[in-house]
Amino acid sequence: MSRSRDLILARVRRAVAGVPDVEVPRAYRGPSGTPGEIRLFEERLRDYRAVVHVVDEAGVPERVARSLAERGARRVAVPGGFPAAWTAAVRAERVADEPPPTAAALDALDGVLTTCAVAVAETGTIVMDAGPGQGRRALSLVPDYHLCVVRAGQIVAGVPDAVARLDPLRPLTWISGPSATSDIELNRVEGVHGPRTLEVLIVA
């Protein structure tokens, strides 16, 4: 196997010997610096079959409580750093992530409630980096229902803008709608790699 590889690579080297280097243009689009449009972000989320609500700051506690009640959620994970005021009206049991529940324990919960690091209007994507109110990656992947609160100021125009805000050394999870996949016949199946239901509260 190794000898065959060496022979092939040697032939490639001989074939390209003396060929001048070609500069490949890399005119990648950079950050625009413009804020993301809430309406576009909302539209993209709905395209992905996510449930979306736009509320003001004062309306967050009531909307969070109502969403969980409509879901019939009795036990939900709430990571450290999630604003306590936003759960003031919640009647469901709030399960902390310290000490970290096992995957089986997370799977038995009715959902998870988080914030995010940044959101992308153009693609309808929510990005989490395990910061305050977000918790570890398993929290947003194991429970079947994810309720995420996104502030308007966290919404950027495009992916380059999001990348400019993020720390590449942190564990990044990019979420574009509920988890879904399809087989060769394009039969859509949801909930395979993450939550079957994504609900987003945009605080405008």
TrEMBL record:
Q: Which Pfam families match?
A: LUD_dom (PF02589)
Q: Which domain of life is it from?
A: Bacteria
InterPro entries (UniProt xref): FTHF_cligase-like_sf, LUD_dom, NagB/RpiA_transferase-like
**Domain LUD, which positions?**
105-203
Origin organism is Microbispora amethystogenes
Q: What is this protein called?
A: LUD domain-containing protein
